[in-house]
Amino acid sequence: TEDITRKKIANFVALNPSYLSRLFKKETGLTLTEYITELRLKQAQKLLIETENTITSIAEEVGYKNYSYFSQIFKEEFGLTPWEYKKNYQKDVS
Question: What is the pTM of this model?
Fold first, then answer.
């Protein structure tokens, strides 16, 4: 749920934010934003399948305060809305 910024990461690893961005892109092929989004969406996938939490609470838990935006990027990544994903893939947690 923490607000993760390039500046915070750069401060943590004691690098200039611009240099960190260039280095990260060179090493991973992804921007920091793309990487963070990927991690958040993977965690959301897991929570949608393994918990009974509401989609809104899952969105907030993985760092999205705006449910509509979360739903939009989730669908762009996985081809399903979070609700459709949960309905199709949720394990029986009872």
Answer: 0.85
Give the Cα separation of 66 and 48 in Å (integer).
17
Beta carbons within 8 Å of 17's beta carbon, 6+ residues apart: 6, 7, 9, 10
Alpha-helical segments (H) within 1-94 = 6-13, 17-28, 32-50, 55-61, 67-78, 82-89
Task: State residue 4's pLDDT score.
Answer: 86
User: Is residue 41 within 8 Å of 49, Cβ to Cβ?
Assistant: no
Q: How far apart are CA 13 and CA 87, in angstroms?
A: 40
